[in-house]
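During data preparation, a discrete fold description was generated, as reproduced here:
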Amino acid sequence: MLRKFSLITYFLASTVLASDVGDHKAGIWSIESAQDMTRWIIIHNIESDANTAVFHIEVIGRKHGHAVWQIERLVHHMAITEKALKASVKIPLKSGAVYPESFNHAYLSWQKENNGMGGAICDTSVIECF
């Protein structure tokens, strides 16, 4: 009985939280963790991304047991559809950030691909695209 309640609660919570991707101003969300690492995404430029339905994110992580400042950049930039992003996020976090320089550099490189039209856009999930 408890397992059934937990599953129902999880599905209801994940549906509600995922629907507010553009409204979560902090822009940092937890995503599926790896066996040895907790992972998050940071959505950059939320306001403009929400209008285009393509979000620009960075994926970060920290190995279990490591200090809070020992963050690894797993993906410097990823363009992702709103549907794929909603399928990926778990819980919004109230705070957290990293310096944006590596994201900005990777984003500029992505913009230059295909004669300035931009590069690939993930349309499945964050985990499947990196």
